TrEMBL record:
<dbReference type="GO" id="GO:0016872">
    <property type="term" value="F:intramolecular lyase activity"/>
</dbReference>
<feature type="compositionally biased region" description="Basic and acidic residues">
    <location>
        <begin position="93"/>
        <end position="110"/>
    </location>
</feature>
<dbReference type="InterPro" id="IPR036298">
    <property type="entry name" value="Chalcone_isomerase_sf"/>
</dbReference>
<keyword id="KW-1133">Transmembrane helix</keyword>
<feature type="region of interest" description="Disordered">
    <location>
        <begin position="91"/>
        <end position="110"/>
    </location>
</feature>
<keyword id="KW-0812">Transmembrane</keyword>
<keyword id="KW-0472">Membrane</keyword>
<dbReference type="Pfam" id="PF16035">
    <property type="entry name" value="Chalcone_2"/>
</dbReference>
<dbReference type="InterPro" id="IPR016087">
    <property type="entry name" value="Chalcone_isomerase"/>
</dbReference>
<dbReference type="InterPro" id="IPR016088">
    <property type="entry name" value="Chalcone_isomerase_3-sand"/>
</dbReference>
<feature type="domain" description="Chalcone isomerase">
    <location>
        <begin position="197"/>
        <end position="432"/>
    </location>
</feature>
<feature type="transmembrane region" description="Helical">
    <location>
        <begin position="66"/>
        <end position="85"/>
    </location>
</feature>
<protein>
    <recommendedName>
        <fullName>Chalcone isomerase domain-containing protein</fullName>
    </recommendedName>
</protein>
Length: 451
């Protein structure tokens, strides 16, 4: 081709704003023939090739992502079930099989006898979710009271010395809590150890995560001889001159005990009492599934750390407010000053942590008790659940130790009783209901039945 013809076909100067070339189109139906009198097909009969490929690719990517998500969830679900669902041990399985075989043999042996002399109809309430409680049978006593009585008792009642009155917890993992318990307490000038009775004020279930997984059931017990002291403190909070609260005053006390700030002030005042005005209390904790002391300890440590951070923040805000009112400049101090900023509190927290160090597992149904004496000393008791040939049985109570610094027990008690976020909202509400009930009667006339 000559240079003249080449120059004629390809211009030297080309317009920069020339329209882009039109993309290729492909007909949807290649066999479709154009109709006479129709110059071209409608735009609906064409599909952009690159756009169709992009849409198909996006659809396949979405499908792949959903399939990958389903595969990941199917692999994670068994892991969560294995972690959260307690599998019975070989001993428990063997005991269950032996019990089923014994029941089957008893039915076969007693079949003919039951036809001749049928058993009387049982009128017990079907509410009993468990047949045994700490080695005793659970029955419904007169007055619609749930009690745990010895196996050989014919007609047990709640007033029997060997019977234990029970309170339903609301969970099938730990169906019942005893209404009264006995704990060792020091008495006399020589601090001789003796047994004292404590009465249940309220209980609730500790739940964690968005799945509301049940961890343990916790109940607050008050020493029976100190119930009137707690009653007096609660009444004086609303009306110092009253001996009992009227309905309007009871509602004011309920709101105060549920308010984050006022509840902290009320319980701080009660927990700060010493001597005859102090109140002996105890928290009874029963795991609803197999756990260990490390998990329980870490939960309390995190709660205590959050409470101390709140106190430090309030103190810092107060210092800044005072500096602003006095028109001064609040400079940061090299050493933090406050209620929980000294070295002795750090040592006390190490003692509290050491109470549960190396203790191993805490199986479902075992009992952990945290006590708070008149001087604010925190004590820890543990009663394991032992498997025997005759079934499960509560073992001997073990003393884990104590922490003398009253600030530790105060923070642990506040985790369940006061503040914005408590460890168990159900427990706080039930404890508040128990507090309202003991303020209905004059001081010194509180009945044994609290819940």
């Amino acid at each position: 081709m000559t240079p003249i013809r080449l120059a004629a076909r390809r211009p030297v100067l080309r317009c920069l704003n020339a329209p882009a070339p039109r993309p290729q189109f492909r007909a949807r139906n290649l066999n479709q023939q154009s109709k006479p009198g129709r110059a071209h097909l409608s735009d609906l009969d064409y599909v952009s090739v690159h756009r169709a490929e992009a849409m198909e690719r996006a659809r396949l990517i979405r499908r792949r992502n959903w399939l990958a998500l389903g595969a990941a969830l199917s692999m994670m679900a068994p892991i969560f079930l294995v972690r959260l669902w307690d599998l019975p041990s070989p001993d428990e399985q063997q005991q269950k099989e032996n019990q089923e075989n014994q029941e089957k043999q008893q039915k076969e042996r007693g079949g003919v006898i039951d036809l001749i002399t049928p058993k009387p109809t049982s009128c017990d309430s079907p509410r009993a979710a468990a047949d045994e409680f700490q080695g005793k049978k659970v029955v419904i006593a007169p007055g619609d009271k749930v009690i745990a009585a010895p196996v050989d008792a014919d007609h047990p009642v709640a007033s029997d010395a060997d019977s234990i009155e029970l309170v339903e917890t609301g969970t099938s993992y730990v169906p019942y809590f005893p209404k009264t318990i006995t704990l060792p307490v020091p008495t006399g000038p020589e601090a001789v150890e003796s047994q004292a009775e404590y009465q249940l004020l309220g209980l609730g279930i500790r739940k964690v995560s968005f799945l509301r997984v049940q961890v343990y059931v916790v109940g607050l017990y008050i020493r029976s001889s100190d119930l009137h002291t707690l009653q007096n403190h609660l009444i004086n909070t609303v009306n110092p001159s009253a001996s009992a609260l009227i309905p309007g005053e009871k509602e004011d006390l309920r709101k105060a005990l549920l308010d984050p700030e006022r509840s902290t002030q009320i319980w701080d005042s009660i927990l700060a009492r010493k001597g005859p005005e102090a109140v002996d209390m105890a928290f009874r904790v029963v795991p609803t599934r197999g756990t260990d002391f490390g998990h329980l300890r870490d939960g309390w440590m995190r709660g205590i750390a959050s409470r101390t951070d709140e106190v430090r923040k309030r103190q810092a805000d107060l210092l800044r407010q005072q500096a602003t009112e006095n028109k001064q400049i609040a400079l940061p101090k090299p050493v933090e000053e406050g209620e929980f900023g000294d070295e002795s509190f750090g040592l006390a927290m190490k003692e509290f942590k050491a109470l549960f160090q190396g203790r191993g597992k805490a199986p479902k149904g075992s009992v952990l008790v945290l006590t708070r004496g008149r001087d604010g000393e925190l004590g820890a008791l543990y009663q394991p659940l032992v498997n025997t040939n005759k079934g499960e049985k509560m073992g001997e109570t073990i003393k884990l130790g104590s922490v003398k610094d009253e600030r530790v027990s105060k923070l642990v008690w506040q985790l369940y009783l006061s503040g914005q976020n408590v460890s168990s909202e159900d427990a706080r509400k039930n404890i508040v209901n128990g507090c309202i009930e003991i303020t209905e009667r004059p001081v010194g006339t509180v009945e044994g039945r609290v819940l």
